[in-house]
Design a protein that fits this description.
Bound molecules: (2R,3S,4R,5S)-2-(hydroxymethyl)piperidine-3,4,5-triol
Structural class: alpha+beta
Number of strands: 39
Mean pLDDT: 96
Largest sheet: 10 strands, antiparallel
Radius of gyration: 27 Å
Number of helices: 14
Helix content: 10-25%
Strand content: 25-35%
Low-confidence stretches: 54-61
Amino acid sequence: MAILFDEATRQFRLHTDASSYIIRLLDGKYLLHAYWGARVRAYKTDVYARFCGAPEEAFTLQEMPTDRLPQEFPAFGHGDSRMPAVHILQVNGSRVSDLTYRAHRITKGKPPLEGLPATFSDECETLEIDLADDVSGVRVTLMYSVFEAYNAIARSAVVTNAGAADVRIEKLDSACVDFDRSDFDILTLSGAWARERAPYRRALVPGAQGVGSLHGASGHQQSPFVALLSKDATETNGDAYGMALVYSGNFEACADVSQFGQTRAHIGLQPFDFSWLLAPGERFQSPEAVLVYSGEGLGRMSRDYHRLWQNCLMRSSFANKPRPILINNWEATYFGFDEEKLLSIARAAKKAGVELFVLDDGWFGKRDSDNCSLGDWVCDTRKLPGGIGGLAEKINKEGLLFGLWFEPEMVSPDSELYRAHPDWCIHVKNRERLEARHQLILDLSREDVCDYIISAVSAVLQSANIAYVKWDMNRNMSDIGGAQLPPERQRELPHRYMLGLYRVMKTITERFPSVLFEGCAGGGGRFDAGILAYMPQIWCSDNTDAICRSQIQYATTLVFPPSAMGAHVSAVPNHQTGRTTPMETRAAVAMCGTFGYELDATKLSDDELAQMKKQTDFFKEIKPLMQNGALYRLRSPFEGDDAAWCVVSPDKARAVATLVKTLKRVHMQGERLRLDGLDKSADYAVRFAPFTAQSDTPSFVMGGDELMASGLPVPAQRFDFESRMVVLERV
Ligand code: DGJ
C-alpha cells in the first residue's frame, strides 16, 4: 500500500520505495504538512506542539498560531500571512478563505487531469482530500498520486465553486510544501535564447526567491522546476527535493523563508495577471506538479524523473523506442532551397547512414524569408513542384524517411489566413499588434482557431508519407487579449491558450500515432514536461555549438532524459558562436541526445563523410542504450572546464562514457575519469568509440569498482575541444 490513512494518529502516509510524505489532520479540521523526505515507518512528532512553541511566545509576538503551522495547502487571509497556495476573490470583495477538512478517498490508479497533460499509471494509488470554506462555498480537492518505483508524487488541486455566487481564482498552486527548516540551497535552471537552462544554486535567505515566466510559454529564461538541496548535496549524496511542473505556459516556482526559519516551496500557475472566473457549479483544475525526493543527491533525482517521464508521461509510441538518425536542412540552406538541393543533401546523408530527412522552415506559402506565410500551410510549388507528397516520395525512394517542419500556432500578417481572419490572433482592440519575427500568435483560447490548426496540419500529414514532425513556436506573447473573451475573462487568456494548445496537440498526435513529433520553440523555449506528454523529444537549443551544447544538455538532464533532447552535429565554424570544434566532439555531444545532423552533407569532404558513416554506424549500435540507459553526470562544465557523463544499461552490462574537453592546457599528462553506475563486482572490456582518434587503441579490461574508484585512464589532450568516448562491456 503506497497510501494509508492512520486513524489513530490522523495521518495520511504516502510512501514510495525510498521516500515518505506525511500529512496530518489536526483537530479533525486543519490539514498540516508533517514530513517529506527519506522513507520512515511512521511519523510520531507532535506537529502542533513543535510549531506553536510555548503559548506565551506566540502571544508576545502577536502572531496567530496558524502563522507558524506547516500548512498542507494554505489559503489566504485567516491567520497565515505567508504566501498562500490559493487565493479566492468572492462576490462581496473578500479574499479570505478558511479551508478545512471534509473528506478523503484513496483509490487505485490515477484519474486524468481535465484538459491538461499529466503522468499516468494503473499501478499507482491516488489520495484525494476535500477541503472547504463554509462562507464562500469554495471546495478545494487536493490530489496526490504516488509512483512508488520512481520516488515521485504527482499533485494537482481542483477548485469547485459549490456556493451560490461567482468567485474568482486569483492564485492556485499545483503543489506547496512547508518544510520546518531553511538550511537549504535552491536550484533553478535559467538562461536565454541559445543558452537555455544553466543551473543556478544558492543558499536560501529569508523572504521569497524563485523563478517564473510571463512569456506565455515556460520560456528560454526559466524552467518550470525548482529543487531544494541540503547543504551537503552533490551528484551522489545528500537530499534533493525536486518540484517540476507538467505545464508549458506562465508559471511560478518559489521558496519563501519565513521569520521562524521555515521554508514554503511552491510551484504552479503564474499568479501575476492571472485570474479565473468560476460560476456556481464550475471547477478549475491546476496543472500537475511532480515531486521527487532523492536521498542520494541530484543524480538519483534526475534518473527518477527521467524514468518517470519516459514510462508514465510520454504517450508517444516512441517514448521508449530508439529514434531514427535524422538530417535537418535548416542550417544547411535556411530558406534558400529547391527540390534538387534537398535531394542532394538527402542522398549524401543516406550514404553516410542517416535514416530520416527533415525539411525545415520555408516550404509553404511564399516563404523566402521569415516575413510571411505562417498560417498558409500549402506547399510552395515554386520550390517543390511535386508538392510535399512528391518530395516525400522521392526522399523515400532514396531510402530515407521524410519529416516536416510546422509552426502551427502562428500567423504572419502577410498571409492569406490573416487577411481572412484578422481577429484570430492574440490582440487588444485598438492597440498596435506588436510583431516579433514578423509574426503574431493565433488565439488558441478560441475553439474555431484550434479547429483550423487541427484541420490544416492534418491535411498536410494526410497528403504525404510523413514520419516526423517538428512543431516550432517562435515568439512570446504580448498585447494579451482575445476577441471572444468578455472583459472579466481577459486574464484567463494565457491559460486558455495552453488548454487549446494541449487539445490541438492531443488530437493531432493521437490522429497520427506513427508520426514522431519533436517540440521546439526557437530552440528550447518550451522545454517542459507539458510538451513531453505529447511529443517525446524537444529541440534543445538553437545553439548547436558542441561546447555550448555540452553545457545546455548537461543541465537539461537535471530534469529530462537524453532521449528527450533534440541534438545535431552542425557545420563549423558554428553558426551561433563562430567556434570550430572537431567533428568527433560534435558527434559525441549530439549522441547524448536524439542524435542527428544539421548541415549540408554535400559540402563535406570524403574524409568527413567517412567519419559521418562511422558515427552513424556506432550510434545505431548504442541507440538502445542511450535511449533507455541510466545517466550519470560525472563532471560539470559549470564547475570546471570539462563535461563528462556516462550512460549505463539497466542491467549494468554496457555503458558509454563521454568526456568533452575545452581549452588545451599545455604539458599535461593524461588523466583519469571516474565513472559511476557500473557493477562493482564485474569486469568491463573498454574500447574507444570507432569514430574517434583513439579508435586504434587496443581494448583493455578493468573492474567496475576500479573504473569508479580509480577511474578510466584517458589519453592526454592534444588540441582544444577534443573529446573522448568509450564503450564498456561486461566480460
Ligand atoms: C527556430 C528553430 O529552433 C530552428 O531550428 C528552425 O526550425 C527555425 N525556427 C526555423 O524558422
